[in-house]
Request: fold
Amino acid sequence: MLRSLCIAFSMYSRIPVPHCEWREKDMRYALCFFPLVGAVLAALLFGWLWLWEKYSSVWGAGDLVRTVPLLLIPIAVTGGIHLDGFMDTSDALSSFRPLEKRLEILKDPHIGAFAVISLLLYCAVYLASASLIRFESCAPWCAGFVLSRILSAIAVLCFPCAKKTGSLYTFAKGAARRRVLVLLCVELSVCVAFMLYCSPLCGLCLVLLALIVFFYYRVMSVRKFGGITGDLAGWFLCVCELALTVAQGVFCAAARGFLES
Reply:
């Protein structure tokens, strides 16, 4: 199990872990540990907002200094691997080419104009929404980084793969499917319960929104690409977390407006 943990963190984060060989038996439970990367992100984001809440008056810095790390922390921890998939998928979706050509675009290491435009829009919307998030109600949003990875791991096991090669197919093929799916469902239940406990209304809205993005991911990937790939998995994580950030920002703004009125 420790080797599975190391494989998950070495693949999906830049957190230093002991090096281990990717043997088939060690990959059976790697997907179970993928949400732990989200737990690290949740802890770091929560910790940053707590530090800002406690010491912002001492620092005397502006709100932009508080907001930018909320974007940089996920990129720094993951190494931008999911943003890379988001950009490649944005290029492929914007090409309006046949399925085979879209799959070729996903493999192309070059960056297209639509990828850059999509990235700029992503960062702008994320920063604008994150600037509205406040510490006192941020716990469900932080947990959303765990939720998105649980759903992503479930998709690897349950959604069809677009091709029989690549890292995502390797993880899907090597997983102990039934046991891993059961463990992921347990993780999902705990995560959802935590989000609802922290804020029943906000938590419920975030969970439902994540599920809507999840099912759209299933429909879009099959219709546009014939299944999921590693790049599409990265696209899903980015879109899901962006949607949760927008929703959390709107919730915080609405709550503050209600209190002020």
Observations:
- The mean pLDDT is 88.
